[in-house]
Amino acid sequence: MVAGKLDFGSMADFPGVLNGVANQKAGKGSIFISVLSGSVCGSGNGIVVPTDSPAQSIADLKGKTISVPFASTAHGMLLRAVAAQGWDPERDVNIVMQAPEVAGPALQTHKIDAHADFVPFAELFPYRGFARKIYDGSQAGAATLHGTLVEKAYAQAYPEVVVAYLRAVIEANRLLAAEPEKYSELIAKVTGIEPEVDYLFHGPLGLQTRDLAWKPEYRRAVQTSFDTLKLLKRADGDLNANIFIDDRYLRAAFEAEHLDYEAALRNYVQTPLAANDALTGKPIAKTDRVAQIWVRGEARVRSYASPEEAVRELAALERDGRQVRAFYAQDRESDIKLLGDQAWFARSPDGQLNAFLLKDRAQAWASAHGAQVLDFAASRQPTALANR
Q1: DSSP 8-class letter at 81
Q2: What is the pTM of this model?
Q3: Taking Cα atoms as reference points, which of 291, 384, 278 lies closest to residue 332?
Q4: Sign of the dihedral defined by the CA atoms of residues 85, 119, 12, 232, in that order
Q5: Three-class SS of residue 352?
Q6: DSSP secondary structure code for residue 312 in this structure
Q7: Residue 134 · residue 56 · CB < 8 Å
Q8: Which domains does the chain have, with CATH numbers?
Q9: Which long-range contacts (CB under 8 A, 24 or more apart) does 365-373 make?
Q10: Cys-Cys link to 355, which of 93, 215, 343, 385 (CB 3.0-4.6 A)?
């Protein structure tokens, strides 16, 4: 974009800020016109460890080697996570710089103890079977986003094109919301990221939303990105997020599509799930314990009102020789979507299962409710459902 070869660019908050700084230095200027995908809580960034690592949370990484792409959104998350532990990032952990394509093999050969990364690697590596996620960006409580930038001069010269682009994004989001499985398959063909991981992000109740509106949390995230990059000596000068972010084109696109932008600013719900329980046929009203199964050969993901229902159905499917592509569960506390086979479960005396990303959170919930902590394999044993 700085070289004038692109008018539009889509990227995360840290690269977006670098774009703005570089264009500003070049005397051209770019503007952030919309969010594309994001989480006001920070889900999407995460930290993973090798599958056989004893680490269960970031607290177990003191003195360990953690790699991260330098000056990335994930780097900012890692620094916040380390600070939250009260650690000195120069002494208490060994942070090294690695791109995800280098970190994957490094995890598999145990050359690093953990890797922090952005969308979708904290889910992709576990899905591919060589890592476990022990930290979700939502634990840092700082918003993360991908969005679209446009050269300022181009936007001023061709506002109708910018608005048309944003209207196309709105339509794409409608299509994705209506048929998330179909479009997860299409995304996979383009990106090489497995459809099951794409669905984890953009299916109903997914890790991120397709919310385009510039919520205050996203504006703060852009400003924090600049401040962090400046601290890392990757950016200088000054950048005012509220000037860099220009939502006038997005507001025009919403108006053209007969949508209420102010309502979108106030809307913080996850991508909704409108589904009937695959066993009972009844509408699923509460989603805090929803579980889902994607069966190979089926166009739509099956939804269940509870993990214990889904676990029983999983066993039945396997007895019938059906192949399961993915098992999903919702974290009982944070409500983030999990790969169920990597989750921890707390089983209450009545047989109810509750899913958690972190073992210590499952243990805390179990202690408070007289429950038993199980890994996924144990949750599937008949004894785990004996009292149901």
Answers
A1: H
A2: 0.93
A3: 291
A4: positive
A5: coil
A6: H
A7: yes
A8: 8-39+143-266 (3.40.190.10), 46-139 (3.40.190.10), 291-385 (no CATH)
A9: 365/332, 365/333, 371/346, 371/347, 372/346, 372/347, 373/344, 373/345, 373/346, 373/347
A10: 343
